[in-house]
Amino acid sequence: MTNASDVSKGQAIRHNGAVCLVLETQHRTPGNLRAFVQMTLRNLKTGRSSVERFSSSDKVELVTVTRKKCEYSYREGKDYVFMDPETYESISVPEELVGRAKDYLTENQVVDLLFTDDAVAAVELPPTVTLKVVSSPEGVRGDSATNVMKVAEVETGLSVQVPLFIKEGEKIKVSTAEGKYLSRA
């Protein structure tokens, strides 16, 4: 157990029974009130972020999280199978832990697996991924002053808003944080 004021960005803590990654910390002293620490936490199980306040003297439990780069291999039932490129060991991850990352996983996609107590806690995607467009209806060009978008389906089944000039078979870069089109690959 350590003081909340000693926790820094990038560490993991146990909060309300769940392992959370600390995305940001701020030490605040508002006016004549007591100082507190405000943390932005991401729950590794659900993927949701929240802002929590702790008194500077509150005790929090630090959790050791190890990060390992792995390649996505294939899906087996409700499990996703990843391979450790160093040991060639297969690591099976349940669908619940993969979460929304499943929309961005393609064969041989490199991701970070986060481990706590020798068990996979979360799958962390890179900021952008390259995906192939499999279905993209022809857009109708008209007189417009703005960037006109259409819906395209990529190889993983995800629907992405793309510009009219994107056609089937093209590869595009997609932001994993927002699920938005960034550019052609």
How would you describe this structure in keywords?
185 residues; mainly beta; SH3 type barrels; OB fold (Dihydrolipoamide Acetyltransferase, E2P); 3 domains; six-stranded antiparallel β-sheet; five-stranded antiparallel β-sheet; 1 helix; 2% helix; 54% strand; flat
Describe this structure in words.
With 185 residues, the chain is an all-beta fold. It has three domains: 2-63, Roll (SH3 type barrels); 67-124, Beta Barrel (OB fold (Dihydrolipoamide Acetyltransferase, E2P)), CATH 2.40.50; 128-184, Nucleic acid-binding proteins (OB fold (Dihydrolipoamide Acetyltransferase, E2P), Beta Barrel), CATH 2.40.50.140. It is built from one helix and 16 strands. The strands form three sheets. A six-stranded antiparallel beta sheet has the order 1-6-2-3-4-5, with no helix packed on it. Strands 9-8-7-10-11 form a five-stranded antiparallel beta sheet. It has a five-stranded antiparallel beta sheet with strand order 14-13-12-15-16, with no helix packed on it. A hairpin with a 4-residue loop joins strand 13 and strand 14. The chain is flat, with a radius of gyration of 21 Å. The model has no long low-confidence stretch (mean pLDDT 87).
